[in-house]
Specification:
Blueprint lengths: L7 H4 L5 E5 L7 H13 L3 E5 L17 H21 L4 E4 L3 H9 L1 H14 L4 E5 L3 H8 L4 E6 L23 H14 L1 E3 L5 E3 L4 E3 L7 H14 L10
Parallel strand pairs: 1-2, 2-3, 3-4, 4-5, 5-8
Antiparallel strand pairs: 6-7
């Protein structure tokens, strides 16, 4: 959220935590303040959403940085976001890398370690959100950080548990029924069906919906309703 789109106000009452752009892939100080205000009004947990410095490509193109560059990339964004939040009387709850940074760190142990070190150096009480069974989760845990394994309502999966690259035609889920079915499967059966119809295990703590998708608000409403119907409580992850 906070990516300059028009649906933040509609989405905020439907969610329990928000990943807010820190200005490197989208947004700026004003959008951060506006989105933090919306989150506070709706009692939604604040999350920093750091990314590669690449607004042209919305942070979705791989970059290869040195360890020090990567550490600084995350630290600068997290410090800035936390400073803005604190100035507004808000507490940052979690951090989730965005886009290519998220996907690269999920598969690269060294990158995941540097990101986790940067988070710990600034605020060790933050919860690290990351792809289930990925290096960002294991490396954060190894440093003593609390984690939340993430499942996706609007993305398809590959056999190794990674997300299908956006360069492939079937990467995004746009069908409402398919999205709700996947969410319930992940929560109730602790599995997910891959894009080649294989069933693999997945144990998630939080569900992601991309705010920049055309179906974001509809998906959020549908998921909220189906979870309530199945007596699944939506709440902020506790520290």
């Amino acid at each position: 959220m906070g990516e300059g789109l028009a649906n933040d106000a509609e989405l905020m009452p439907l969610i329990s935590s928000a990943n807010i752009a820190c200005g490197f892939h989208a947004g700026d100080e004003n959008t951060m303040k506006k989105t933090i205000s919306l989150a506070l009004e709706n009692q939604v947990a604040l999350g920093a959403h750091p990314s590669f410095a690449d607004k042209e490509n919305f942070g979705r193109i791989n970059q290869f940085l040195s360890h020090s560059e990567l550490f600084d990339l995350v630290s600068i964004q997290l410090n800035h976001f936390q400073s803005i939040a604190n100035s507004m009387g808000a507490i940052v709850h979690h951090v989730k890398p965005h886009g290519a940074l998220y996907n690269m760190a999920a598969q690269n142990k060294s990158m995941a370690n540097i990101i986790a070190l940067a988070i710990k150096s600034i605020q060790p009480n933050l919860i690290v959100y990351g792809l289930c069974n990925s290096f960002i989760i294991s490396e954060a845990k190894a440093l003593g950080l609390q984690t939340a394994s993430e499942g996706f309502a609007d993305r398809t999966y590959q056999i190794d548990g990674s997300l299908t690259p956006r360069s492939q035609a079937n990467a995004m889920i746009t069908n409402e029924a398919q999205s709700m079915k996947q969410v319930l499967q992940m929560l109730q059966e602790k599995t997910v069906t891959t894009n080649n119809n294989q069933i693999i295990p997945i144990a998630i703590d939080t569900i992601c919906i991309h705010g920049d998708s055309q179906q974001a608000v509809v998906f959020a409403k549908n998921i909220q309703q189906i979870l309530m119907k199945n007596n699944i409580l939506i709440q902020t992850i506790a520290h």
